[in-house]
Design a protein that fits this description.
Keywords: Membrane, Transmembrane, Transmembrane helix. By secondary structure, this protein is mostly helical.
């Protein structure tokens, strides 16, 4: 390599090294911010899911208490409601044929 080419390369390399260092630091900072934002969003979603799970557990406990504590016979109650519906349908003069509706 002649001295003229070397004289041109030294300033180019001298300017390029700081630019690459600045760009690398900037890229590192951007990636760190993305990681922090993602972890914050994940924590928020986890809190929302935990809250929803707690609500559902509370509802299940209420349903269990209704079925077990009061001695309800759920099947008997469902049949009683069906019987009441049949009586109401006959009184109105318009009967729903539930078997045909289910067949469709």
């Amino acid at each position: 390599m002649d001295t003229g080419t070397l004289a041109l390369l030294i300033p180019i390399i001298g300017v390029s090294i700081p630019i690459v260092a600045i760009w690398t630091k900037h890229r590192k900072d951007v990636l760190q911010m993305e990681i922090e934002a993602t972890s914050t969003q994940t924590a928020e979603k986890a809190a929302q899911y935990a809250s929803r799970v707690q609500e559902l557990e509370d509802r299940v406990q209420v349903l269990e208490r209704i079925v077990t504590d009061r001695g309800y016979n759920v099947a008997t109650q469902i049949e009683a409601l069906r019987d009441q519906r049949r009586v109401d349908e006959n009184d109105s003069g318009v009967a729903l044929d539930t078997d045909k509706q289910h067949a469709r």
